[in-house]
Amino acid sequence: MPADSRELGLYDPLAESFPPGREGRFLFYLAIAFSLFQVATAAHVVDFPSQVVRAVHVGFVTALIFPLLALARGYGPLGKAVTWGLALLGVAVAGYQWVEYEALLVRAGDPLPLDLVMGVVALFTVFAAAWFAMGPTLPIISGLFLAYCLFGEYLPAPFDHRGYDFGQVIEHMAYGTEGIYGIPIYVSSTYIFLFILFGAFLEKAGMIRLFTDISLGLVGHKQGGAAKVAIISSALMGTISGSGVANVVTTGQFTIPLMKRFGYRAAFAGGVEATASMGGQIMPPVMGAVAFIMAETLGVEYHEIVKAAIIPALLYFGSAFWMVHLEAGKHALHGLPKSELPSAMKALSTQWYLILPLAALVWLLFSGYTPLFAGTVGLAFTLLLILGSSIALGLPSMVVRVMFWIGLGLLAASFFKFGMGVVLVGVAVLIAWNAFSKGGRETLLICRDSLADGAKTALPVAIACAVVGVIVGTMTLTGAANTFGQFIVSVGGTSLFLSLVLTMITCIVLGMGIPTIPNYIITSSIAGPALLELGVPLIVSHMFVFYFGILADLTPPVALACFAAAPIAKESGLKISIEAIKVAAAGFVIPFMAVYTPALMLQDGGALAQSVGFPAAVAYIVFKTAISIGLWGAAVIGFLGGRLGILERVLAVIAAFTLIAAVPMTDEIGFGLALLFAVVIWRKTTATKRAVPSDEKAS
Fold this sequence. Notes:
This protein is mainly α. The chain is built from 33 helices and no strands.
């Protein structure tokens, strides 16, 4: 082992991503084992029952979360002993589920006392891990739902239920495919983990640098180029990473200081990065963990979710782009010198191969393959590229390199005929080849680190999925969603708009304390069926909840993404949150417009599509939404060709609102007001241009 500290950083990843020392090293290799287990089950190298995979997944999560956080927070000997004890309890639960799997199936409905004890331990460790990792809010909310299962029979009607004994509740929550091992943890243990790992490998391979170079080359020299770079790079990052906060702390390390250096206020710079990074969760193809859960919950193909998200995602990022363009114009913020910027074409020509796994992933998703299959293939192709690139650099001539890449391409293509075994053999050969070359050994270390970092990144997502399963389990056991759903439906009988506002407020209030995934699961379980009953198409109703669950991470007082940007921007998280809400205005508009005109999400339905046809409805709603976003941006920033007065900004707000509203004649009024606003701005701009020469002449 090199004694040099610089070399130690290369060979010992614990110095950066895992705590140092024997405990940190053990957890590092445990994280690698976690990733290898997930890859092996996804690729069907080993086949376990789904229940066992879910239990082992949760076992790994609890085994890693407790000691990792204890080490990171500097706990003393007693604290470490307690956390290691909790970690062992989590492992024991997973082992019990695995060993007793068939016996538990046989005695389903009649659990043994030991089954109940282990069930209580399972619930305790999951709740404790969630509290330890994310604070008290989500465990308390889930705990209230669990208490409702046990004591809800004593509540007054209509909130009561028929009553369930302790053993029935514990068995429902801790065994089978409900409760902590329900759909959320199933999705976490399959799709989500693979896609997080996929992103981790691409990041290590240099994808962040490629995205940044492309963004700088395309828009770095434009007006306000630094902020536009942030938006494009964060949007591109969203194609491989579904975590908004992760996007903030990766791309934000570069983009926020860049924006500040070129004149953007610190709060605005942080708000732009937070908005763009959270938008990564609605950017196809990966779209974050929620999209996988949505597809599984609705029983639709994943590409249907992606199709519904394409236009809103483009509008969302287009809106953010417009906002920073106006802010730059207002404060005369120019772009970077073109001579100092990298070439987008050169970046693509030298690192084009990094795009191939992403392209393969998109093709597979849109060809009807499952996300699990697509993620497995995408990860395998990424491994082939990373390992193959290292080998190709050491080959003696260009001809040999070309032949090597052709052979590797044929190996990858043979997967579709001969299956995963061929690719696994190819990966094994490349690993052995790399092991005997210096550059190759460094590449293997990068792959090893990616396995560990991917597992570590997945921990908060996985524990949120486990504990929120208790809420879903409560819904399925007691039917509690009907009470709130009936209330929404009754409100919707008077006004669909009020029902939507009530659902939006619920999402945002929940988002003040819990991450996007449990937020979506709770609100979709409660409000989704109610909105469907009010005539909102199924995917649109769930996308409505999804959007506001994401925006909850931008709204005060919690604003997780904004507080992640705060230390980088060196500004208050609350101030960043206020700016983020302004930049993300389109995110608040699009879900409402999609409910009234589902064509915005490429869904059938709605009066407009029935009257003018589906293609015309799509074109019209996109045009109308773009106009309303443009008006809103001018009103919020207070600039359009020049600074706007109060009356001009009010006119823009009224015009934008009437375009959003879906009642008779509001579109006509909105377009009329938009035209009036355009005429006012044109006359003002023309008058200003005429005044400049005369002023110069007078001087």
